[in-house]
Specification:
Elements (H helix, E strand, L loop, with lengths): L4 E5 L9 H15 L3 E7 L13 E4 L2 E6 L9 H22 L5 E5 L5 H11 L3 E6 L5 H5 L8 H16 L2 E4 L2 H9 L7 E3 L18 H6 L1
Parallel strand pairs: 1-2, 1-5, 2-4, 5-6, 6-7, 7-8
Antiparallel strand pairs: 3-4
Helix pairs in contact: 2-3
Length: 220
């Protein structure tokens, strides 16, 4: 396994410190210390500094980071978000076509959404293997947000393709019991689901007694 290259794909990565980016950054830097060959494909953006673009390529603590172009319209409307996501996903696919070699394991997070559906045939074509690390479930979130209607043809088609992509993956990582149960209920094979809860840095985040908790005092 240590001779196999792991390619992680997410919309944000170090030095960005949004939740998904921090989880991924922690994992990648940990795996590099264990002698894994780690690459990351991500955007040039940071969540809180949307117009401050990062370098196209750099190595941080031996993690190879490939940052790709996407539109940068912002999060002020769904249309702008969708445009940014679509251009990012197209750029990701082109980068994976150049980057992936036979035997590589490509770990796809769920931001940008439905990337596993779009990237699946291209990664398989290059001889790579796909792992889905599911922090969210799409298109269900889009339905709950009233972006698309549950009864619509678009939702039915996307859901069908998504389910196929989940079953075609090597494994699907879920973060909780309810997510595991949901995937099982929609027909994902149980031998293709593993539960790995999200984590935090135990050296930095520790429980405090009520009398020592400054936030509790400040917020009354």
């Amino acid at each position: 396994m240590k001779n196999t290259r792991l390619i992680f794909v997410h919309s944000l990565f170090y030095p960005d410190y949004s939740a998904g980016s921090q989880m991924l950054s922690d994992l990648c830097f940990f795996l590099v210390e264990k002698d894994f060959d780690i690459s990351v494909v991500t955007s040039k953006k940071m969540y809180e500094k949307n117009h401050e673009l990062l370098p196209v390529y750099e190595e941080v603590k031996d993690v190879k980071i490939y940052r790709i172009w996407s539109s940068n319209l912002g999060r002020q409307s769904y249309l702008r978000r969708i445009s940014d996501y679509l251009t990012l996903e197209l750029s990701i696919v082109f980068k994976l076509l150049k980057l992936v070699k036979k035997g590589d394991i490509v770990i796809l997070l769920t931001d940008p959404p439905l990337l596993n559906v779009i990237a699946l045939p291209f990664v398989k074509f290059k001889g790579g293997k796909i792992v889905n690390w599911l922090q969210d479930i799409f298109p269900e979130i889009a339905v709950e947000a009233n972006i698309i209607k549950k009864e619509s043809l678009a939702n039915k088609i996307i859901t069908k393709l998504r389910n196929i992509a989940l079953n075609k993956a090597e494994i699907n990582i879920v973060v909780g019991r309810l997510m595991l149960k949901y995937l099982t209920n929609i027909g994902v094979e149980t031998n293709k689901i593993v539960r790995i809860p999200n984590w935090s840095d135990g050296s930095m985040i520790k429980p405090l007694s009520n009398k020592d908790n400054k936030i509790k005092k400040n917020w009354d």
